[in-house]
Amino acid sequence: MIHRTDTGFKRTGLKKRFAAMILAAAVASSLAACGSSPSGAKPSDAGTTAKSGEAATEPAGDAAKQEETTGSQYAEGQFHLRIATVVTGDHAWVQMGEYMAEQLKERSGGAIEATVFPGGQLGNDEGTIDDMRTGALDIVIGSTQNAAPFVSQFQILSLAYLFPNRDVFEGLLDQDGQLFQYIQGLYDSNGLGLVLLGLSNGGQRDLHTNKPIESVADLKNIKMRTTSSATEALVWQALGTIPTAMSFNDIYSAVQSNTVAAFECTLAAFDTNALYEVANYHIKTAHQFTPTHITIGEISYNRLPEEFQDLLMEVGKEAAVLGSQIADEADDTLLDSLVEDHGLIVCEPDPAEFKAIVEELYPKIASDCDGQELLDLINGLIQ
After folding, report:
1. For residues 319 and 123, is the Cβ–Cβ distance under 8 A?
2. What's the CA gap between 97 and 105, in Å, rounded?
3. Would you put residue 2 in left (φ > 0), alpha (ψ -120 to 50) or beta?
4. Quick check: 200 and 320 in contact, CB under 8 A?
5. How far, in Å, CA of 324 to CA of 305, rounded?
6. Cα–Cα distance between 279 and 349 in angstroms, integer?
7. Would you say the C-alpha torsion 272, 273, 279, 285 has a positive or negative sign?
8. What backbone torsions phi and psi does residue 85 show, to the nearest 5 degrees?
9. Alpha-carbon span 203 to 290, nearest angstrom
10. Beta strands at 112-117 and 223-226: parallel, antiparallel or unpaired
């Protein structure tokens, strides 16, 4: 098993550095705003920042007093949140959840106690989303593709070869962006009772098999693990495979027993689940970036006082950025480690051959999932 210290990807490394940067930025912003805002005004109400050397002692004292009393009217651990994800180990989604738990507790004065349940302990993606809707579960961090049964248009976000590169994809994910607002609108129009907290890049997805793949022709009649998404099945069937829907947590045993011979996922998921033990070929298709959502049930969200709702949105935004940073670092470093430590064999077929086949499916996929509007929005933002 790879130790994260070998890749600079240690759990206590990037996450703590990120938290420190966020805290420093927040303190700097707060001090600047206090120097120019009327007493009691929020930092966001200030139109300008204080000039250098003009931070008055009284506003600074008010800010310190406010910091000391934040959350003091609430009992310690008064609000409990459960955060579910299907992955394990040091995967970005687990670290995002842990970051949220730490920051929510610290910045609520201990009033919010959040617990992360990794490895599908609370159920698969579909089950946990259902539980969020009823208030039985609070927050889910996972792939938008696995949430497509509830938001069919999510299938557009997972279209292979839709985004030209990582920077373009990540540039569309901010809370203030059109894509974020559009997805929240889908939650609302479908009556799901969900609140979107963050969108993140969960990492580049590639094909993994137990045999070499040098071209599309080599995929013919290979049994391929897919999610329950009809779109994903359509894509991989067009590429010649025989799609077989199953849970991610079943991949290891399925490949081991020859139920399937191929699957696609990120390098981080491949590593943390030791899938190199059953599939030692990495096929660099680079066909997709993993759209990740952080979502809370509206029932759970509405149980929180307004100030903690705002805090939750802030921390969700930060966790989304952290998730992209972790996934990027894994994509940039893990492959070399897997090759060196576990003898992973890398194949590099021409992605243009795959892309040409998949792009022909875009109109049908968009029509089937009522996603043409979202597809047009994304294409417009990319151009």
Report:
1. no
2. 12
3. beta
4. yes
5. 29
6. 17
7. negative
8. -150, 155
9. 5
10. unpaired
**CA neighbours within 13 Å on the CB side: how many for 377?**
16
Supply the DSSP string of 160-197, one letter for each residue: TT-SSSHHHHHTT--TTSHHHHHHHHHHHHTT--EEEE
| Cβ–Cβ under 8 Å, residues 235 and 361 | yes
List, for residues 275-326, the tens digit of each pLDDT value.
Answer: 999 999 999 999 999 999 999 999 999 999 999 999 999 999 999 999 999 9
180-191 residue pLDDT tens:
999 999 999 999
Tell me, letter by letter, the H, E, C secondary structure of 87-144: CCCCCHHHHHHHHHHHHHHHHCCCCEEEEEECCCCCCCHHHHHHHHHHCCCCEEEEEC
Instruction: Give the pLDDT score at 146.
Output: 83
SS3 86: coil
Contact 251, 261 (CB under 8 A): no
Rounded CA-CA distance 93/87 in Å is: 7
- Strands 194-209 and 281-297, by their bridges, are antiparallel
Q: List, in order, residues 6 or more apart from 215 with CB less than 8 Å away.
A: 349, 350, 353
Nearest one of 169, 225, 232 to 368, comparing CA atoms? 232
Closest CA to 354 of 238, 211, 210: 238
Which residue's entry shows tokens 């039985």?
Answer: 136
Q: Which residue has the tokens 């979202």?
A: 374
Spatial CA neighbour of 232 closest among 207, 255, 213? 207
For 272-306, the DSSP string reads HTTGGGT--EEEEEEEEEEEEEEEEEHHHHHHS-H
Helix, coil or strand: residue 198: strand
